[in-house]
Amino acid sequence: MKRIIWVLGLAVMTVAALALIATKQQAVQASTQATQAATAEVKIDNFSFGPAALTVAVGTTVTWVNHDDIPHTVVSTEGAFKSKVLDTDEKFSFTFSKAGSYPYFCSIHPKMTGKVVVQ
Amino acid sequence: MPGKKKDEILHDHNHDGIDRRGFLKCMAWAGTGAYCVMSGGVLKSYSLSRLSEMNPAATKGELSFVQISDSHMGFNKPANPDVAGTLKAAVDKINALQTAPEFLLHTGDISHLSKPEEFDTVDQILKGASAKDVFFVPGEHDVLNDDGKQFQERYGKNAKGEGWYSFDKKGVHFIGLVNVLNLKAGGLGTLGHDQLEWMEDDVKHLKNSTPIVVFAHIPLWSVYPEWGWGTEDSAQALAYLKKFGSVTVLNGHIHQTMQKVEGNVTFHTAASTAFPQPQPGKADSPGPMKVPAEQLRSILGITDVSYVQGQHALAVVDSSLA
User: Which site among A40, A77, B2, B102 is 20 to 30 Å from B203 CA-CA?
Assistant: First the structure.
């Protein structure tokens, strides 16, 4: 009888522990989702990116908006992303899923450069 | 000709070796316009408003052509909501010239967004010009999204590489260059190895006395690198032209007229037919400059170039659309 109680007790504890782990995993997933939903904006104004250097968390979606009267592009120097040409008020978004440093420039006006640092 | 006046620039290059780095800066800002004659190594520059003082014979030559630039068809912002209208005004100005030009050179930014209909509109308007032949080089606005494929299909069927080419007219050798492709982060305009190699070969067989006209969109001299107004490897291209007695470089891109003479080379940028841009460093950015509507046409324009055979002289005249 004692042995049965002991086994039952162990089972209950195991279930509880598994439930706890599952809950924690859900919490982790929820927090990841929260990060994925994070957004940031870079304004293109007067032939420059603002801010020129932006630091975001992994999973952040960065949106560039062109406020100039002249079209611009947003092109990763290392080929990670490349926008179509953005006319006035047009936008381009990219979600950064890996940590790292992402330098970019406007391929029409290459003096315009910027950087996104993903942590 | 009366004595030297305030806004006239006179410089004697007669005794200059081509290695001489001394140069003369002669800037004709937007709105003023300039008339330049280079003859026997002497460059004279007059403000357009005093053109009437010139001997009209000096403007006549064996060959005359007109440079237009930066039409930006499709642009519709306050700096000029009617770029088709101002291009038509440029064509009217061309058709009113006393001597009809043999052809037109368009130094790029034909379109604003590389849209087929923008190119179509420009082609249609230019059909109204007295000169039927038009030679184009692309601006960065003409090669968006497709690395210049559309541009080359339309205008560069007989061109080499990514769109460069040369041709001869009445003893003058013209070279059209492409410096708006494969631009690198932080850099300026680029000609690239293949084009430079082609150019070296293209001019090798020419006599030193052949007048050379080079045209490209972004200036081939360092106008204002901070705004990207220059070409990384232009020095190499100009080195191939050192043996020639007369070299004229015609560019667009900066939407204002500017001139500089360095050794055997005269550099010239043309006004836009669409909208003006600020003087180097005189604004936060090189974006379109808004001017009162009644002033707009006085700072847009065309460039009329004539060549007098035997004198190795190219006369460059900027006219506003007003």
Answer: B102
CB distance B145–A84 less than 8 Å? yes
Other Cβ atoms within 10 Å of A22 Cβ, number: 10
The vertex-B194 CA angle with B206 and B197, nearest 5°, equals 30
Segments forming the whole domain that contains residue A13: 1-35
Q: List chain A residues with CB under 8 Å of B144.
A: 71, 73, 85, 108
Per the document, the length of chain A is: 119
Q: What is the pLDDT of residue B259?
A: 84
User: Tell me, what CATH number does A92's domain have?
Assistant: 2.60.40.420
Note whether B219 contacts A: Cβ–Cβ < 8 A.
no
Q: What are the tens digits of pLDDT across the range B147-161? A: 999 999 999 988 999
Chain B contact present for A85, CB below 8 A: yes
Q: Give chain B's domains with CATH numbers.
A: 9-320 (3.60.21.10)
CB contact under 8 A, B226 and A111: yes
CA torsion, ordered B70, B71, B75, B78, to nearest 10 deg: 80
The count of other CB atoms within 10 Å of the CB of residue A104 is 26
Cα(A104)–Cα(B139) distance, rounded to whole angstroms?
Answer: 22
Residues A24 and A74 in one domain: no
pTM score:
0.80
Determine contact, residues B271/B303, Cβ cutoff 8 Å. yes
Output the CA–CA distances (angstroms, integers) from residue B114 to B73, B127, B294, in the order listed. 9, 20, 29
| A9-41 pLDDT per residue, tens | 555 555 555 454 555 555 444 444 444 479 999
Write the CA distances from B280 to B27, B159, B224, B227, B258, integer angstroms: 12, 33, 6, 8, 11
